[in-house]
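Input structure tokens:
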């Protein structure tokens, strides 16, 4: 009996050992069994892990400097520049004891008024003059406001001429604002003033930006064989809560972190994706400051007429009473205006119309166009591919709307490329191997007169302190300077920020106030460099169509005509 039992044990041990040897020899084959089953397993596991991501989100202790000053230590010159930029976008704060302000005491656009001021000496308005409008803000009790800080937009337009221009708003910090407009066309023109946010709402947005950089959170998948884990990622994660994986860029020092998986190592990271948006960020009182059709993007009515009649330029008049009556020059802040639905730039470039595919193709012939940034420049890539049928998109098997993308016209020697900028990027899943910082990409370009660089980077930085954006632009600027030094003639075009549709939720993450602040920093950072600007901000303010993160086709067409006019400037006749 014992002898038979020993025999069975020996046979069992032999079979087990043989099976183990077979498994070890064929482990690679086993890892590739039934890909569909494994994929389904990954998806199920990912769904389970994603549902618990929110529970693992970090706790922030309202430490503004922790997030803003990560990365490489700036030089003393960089610190001075940073302070200058922050001062240049400083915004009026609320008066003392503002915590006790109730909704009824906050800015109410429907109770506020604007007045068109007459010209000096009661003269008529002429092309070349400047129109001034005075705005007085009132609260919900119709009482005048005594402090500033409201975010206002102003536009002068003539629907019958398809004309429009953005106004410049000046805050007098006492409840009064001035809106200034250059008069650029003849005929009837109408003033439009809009309150985007009250001063009280701006104060909430500013606090969120400085204290809650986690309100958009990100995630990464880590995978090895059958095992996968998903963890929370961000530019700034508190280091005292969980072990971190450090993905700081070696060349730029741009910081990025993920919480370390419980089992897998940091080098098993597969991708990057938007995790989601934190909810319930506002108190009940604060939420009242963000109500659609009440105090988000609501028009302010005129006290008296909102229209003027603009006469021809005074340069046509024979007699001028005095030199003081000469028209004021157009303000340099005005980059252009619409007339007959076409943008007319005021920077000296002659705007051309590229209305057919052959014109687009001839302009881009023998050129390499490198587009870097967010989805607003990806919209340009899509426009060019649609406008030039011979420009065929090459299938890189990239995720839709994410990229990278490439289109080629072999006949006319055109290469068009798009790549999204490095994190933070709120796209759907991006492979971690495809995450590239713009400055590093620029350092890899040869450049030259047949190379075009297009940049658009703003929308994904609105949830972070401005110092984060300044640091990113500084790296890009340094790379551009080096590129233009080694390859003079390289064409560099920068697309500015634009306005978008707002409700309460969008306001907390992508308010136009955030975009305005970033846009002002961007303009200052690249001022003095040989770069060309497509002023998407003024092009969206001046147009009559509703604001949209991805502007409608008619605005994009004008942007692209300006871009192509930069790439292929009209030759001056002898």
């Amino acid at each position: 009996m014992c002898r038979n039992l020993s025999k069975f044990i020996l046979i069992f041990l032999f079979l087990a050992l043989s099976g183990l040897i077979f498994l070890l020899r064929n482990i690679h084959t086993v890892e590739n069994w039934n890909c569909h089953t494994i994929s389904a397993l990954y998806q199920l596991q990912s769904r389970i892990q994603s549902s618990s991501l929110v529970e693992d989100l970090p706790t922030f202790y309202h430490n503004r400097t922790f997030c803003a000053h990560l990365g490489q230590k700036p030089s003393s010159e960089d610190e001075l520049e940073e302070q200058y930029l922050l001062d240049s976008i400083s915004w009026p704060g609320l008066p003392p004891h503002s915590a006790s302000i109730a909704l009824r005491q906050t800015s109410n656009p429907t109770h506020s008024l604007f007045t068109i001021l007459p010209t000096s000496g009661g003269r008529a308005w002429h092309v070349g003059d400047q129109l001034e409008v005075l705005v007085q803000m009132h609260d919900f009790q119709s009482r005048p406001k005594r402090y500033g800080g409201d975010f206002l937009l102003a536009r002068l337009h003539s629907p019958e001429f398809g004309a429009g221009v953005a106004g410049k708003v000046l805050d007098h910090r006492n409840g009064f604002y001035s809106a200034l407009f250059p008069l650029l066309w003849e005929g009837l023109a109408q003033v439009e003033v809009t309150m985007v946010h009250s001063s009280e709402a701006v104060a909430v947005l500013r606090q969120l930006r400085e204290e809650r950089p986690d309100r958009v959170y990100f995630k990464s998948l880590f995978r090895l064989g059958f095992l996968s884990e998903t963890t929370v990622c961000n530019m700034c994660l508190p280091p005292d809560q969980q072990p971190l994986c450090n993905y700081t860029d070696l060349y730029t020092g741009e910081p990025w972190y993920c919480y370390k998986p419980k089992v897998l190592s940091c080098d098993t990271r597969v991708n990057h994706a938007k995790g989601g948006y934190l909810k319930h960020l506002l108190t009940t009182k604060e939420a009242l400051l963000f109500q659609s059709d009440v105090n988000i993007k609501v028009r302010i009515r005129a006290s008296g007429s909102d229209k003027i009649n603009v006469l021809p330029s005074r340069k046509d008049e024979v007699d001028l009473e005095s030199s003081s009556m000469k028209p004021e020059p157009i303000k340099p802040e005005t980059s252009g205006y619409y007339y007959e639905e076409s943008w007319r730039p005021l920077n000296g470039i002659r705007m051309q119309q590229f209305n057919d595919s052959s014109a687009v193709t001839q302009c881009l012939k023998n050129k390499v166009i490198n587009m870097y940034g967010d989805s607003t420049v990806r919209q340009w890539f899509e426009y060019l591919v649609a406008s030039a049928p011979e420009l065929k998109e090459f299938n890189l098997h990239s995720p839709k709307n994410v990229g990278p993308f490439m289109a080629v016209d072999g006949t006319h020697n055109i290469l068009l490329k798009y790549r999204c900028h490095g994190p933070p990027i709120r796209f759907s899943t991006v492979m971690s191997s495809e995450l590239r910082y713009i400055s590093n990409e620029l350092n890899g370009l040869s450049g030259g007169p047949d190379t075009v660089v297009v940049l658009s980077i703003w929308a994904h930085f609105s949830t972070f302190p401005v110092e984060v954006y300044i640091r990113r632009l500084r790296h890009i600027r340094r790379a551009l300077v080096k590129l233009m030094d080694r390859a003079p003639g390289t064409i560099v075009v920068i697309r500015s920020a634009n306005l978008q549709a707002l409700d309460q939720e969008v306001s907390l993450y992508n308010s136009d106030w955030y975009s305005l602040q970033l846009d002002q920093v961007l303009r200052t950072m690249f001022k003095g460099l040989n770069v060309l600007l497509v002023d998407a901000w003024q092009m969206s303010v001046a147009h009559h169509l509703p604001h949209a993160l991805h502007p409608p086709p008619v605005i994009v067409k004008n942007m692209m005509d300006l871009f192509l006019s930069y790439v292929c400037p009209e030759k001056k006749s002898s």
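The chain has three domains: 38-68+216-277, 98-204+288-316, 349-567. DSSP finds 15 helices and 25 strands in the chain.
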